[in-house]
Amino acid sequence: MHSADPHICFQGGLRGHTEDEHLFIVLILSFLQRREQRRQRDDTSYLLGNRFGIIMPLDFVGTFSNRWSYGIAFGATANKVMFLFSEGYQPLQIPQWAQAFELLIGGLEVGLSHFPFFACLSSEFQLVSSTLGFCYSLIWFAVTILQVSQCPHGQFVGKYETLVFYWPSLLCLAFLLGRFLYMFVKALRVHLGWELQVEEKPVLEAHQAEHVKQLLRTPRPQEEKKSWFQTRIYEWDPCFQFPSRMIGTIVLAFICLYLFIVIEFCMFVYVRDELEMFENKLESYITSVNHSGILTPAILQVKELISVTKGVWVATILPASLTCVSYLFHILVCYRKHIKRLWAGDKHFLPLRFRNPASSESVVAIARYSGWQIAYILWGYFIIHVVQSLCGMAIMYGLVLPIVHKQGLEMLRGLGIGILTISIVVGLMILQMWIATSFFLQPKLGTADKQKPLALNNRKAFHNFNYFLFFYNVLLGLGACLSRLLISCLLGTWLIARIDRTIMPSGYEGADMGFSAWIGMLYVDHYHTNPVLVSFCHILITDHRERKLQQTTKYWCLNQSAGPRVSARSRTRWLLLQTLINNPRLVMLRKSKLGHSSQESQILMTCSDS
């Protein structure tokens, strides 16, 4: 059984099976979720008590637990995301100008159909949510297997074409089945009293606390030498974790990139078959007009062009794919580097316009970032593939084909002339630099100076030098302008998938909407997950809870009298002494009375010696 588009084959069969199930799961989880505040009695929702609270599928800012589970849940949506990306979702007959609303409806449907996965993963009622999540994942897995078995083959890839499209989703669903089963077993053991109940989600994560402790420690010289991988590529930091949003974005981007490459290959197979039919027609035409021989060379060149294009396009699939895959890993590296700089208060790596962005822009940016990052990767792969194919065509027609056609000497002669011309131009530019350095600049002021001062020498010769080279530099500027255009096009197309850096010139960074989304996302994470700020809030919350517990304890005074009492002043002085011992330079910055600074320094010296 052949299927022209496995996505269309899948959509019609699955939509009806999951609408009722996900509505049932959402209602149950919403019933279990309690609202923090009751409504007024004159409100009709007061009859519901504090039931039917709002379900949060995922905390896009501060979630660091179950990161890979959320990431795999995002990966399960890859096929539907690609179905929307190809604009194959058209349930309504609406005008062309209203297609944005149609795509919005499609995005909402994808979100609703996969909402139970995230709701069951993030729910506090693990026993119920794991059961519902397992059943929902099992339904998805069974229906997907049924669809693959019903129409396994296709006309582009051939055998098992549908499986080629849907094995990532099946793998993600299998992982979710195992994850929900593990959650069920763990929740059941807690319910039976075999294990202790896990505490509620802490305000301060363990890696954030370690980061703050590392800041408070005295920096020590690094004794261990770092490897080449650690210095050049990536170094693991135990005091840092990527949020669930970044993990989910990268996982979904990987799967969508794979699906995009498969779809592109299917389109290539279709175009290749059409070109083969065209070549057959050309061959029949050549045999019919072979007695004249007028059009035969041109037709053979067309056949050669088609053959070279097909070969170059296939050969550049791998380097274009590896380029985008390396970009995905590099995005994670840049995220950690940029967010750490913001934590340290360093904003110099940002353009001036983005050093104080609007709060509304940042909030919208964190909602846009994940989707835009995936779209940039997909379109970036296609553009990089096209550019690499054009470069491959240039290499084939400039170097390879002349040798095949026994025109290697002419090719080498032309290549040598071109290299010699460029070498002479570059040599003249270097000669200008050498003459300017040797004759038109005054000597160094000191022996330790790295370069001569910007002070003219031999002014008459300098003005004659500028006059006679003025007309030559006009022609040289034409080549420089063309090289500037070529380099800008190459770098722009090569870095189009990099949303973490702008390809716009200085002063026009605001026109790069992708880079604006990246900066806004960084600021939201910086303001809400800064370890120092979160640690401070954790201390305040803990202190508030302790005071509230002390006030509600009936025999608090008796309990306090059982142990030694420490005054707040003594505790503060002890902490101050400990801080000054760890940071001796702070003694010079303290505002103290006369004579106290010297005494404190002597005390610190004795403490450090001991």
From TrEMBL:
Keywords carried by this UniProt record: Cell membrane, Membrane, Receptor, Transmembrane, Transmembrane helix, Transport
Residue spans crossing the bilayer: 125-145, 165-185, 250-271, 312-333, 378-400, 412-435, 470-497
Any one GO cellular component localisation term in the record: plasma membrane
Membrane topology type: Multi-pass membrane protein
A GO BP annotation: vitamin A import into cell
Cell compartments where the protein resides: Cell membrane
Molecular function in Gene Ontology: retinol transmembrane transporter activity; signaling receptor activity
Keyword S-adenosyl-L-methionine among UniProt keywords: no
Main localization, broad class: membrane
Domain of life assignment: Eukaryota
UniProt xrefs under InterPro entries: STRA6-like
PANTHER family the record matches: COILED-COIL DOMAIN-CONTAINING PROTEIN 180, STIMULATED BY RETINOIC ACID GENE 6 PROTEIN-LIKE
Name assigned to this protein: Stimulated by retinoic acid gene 6 protein-like
Gene source species: Saimiri boliviensis boliviensis
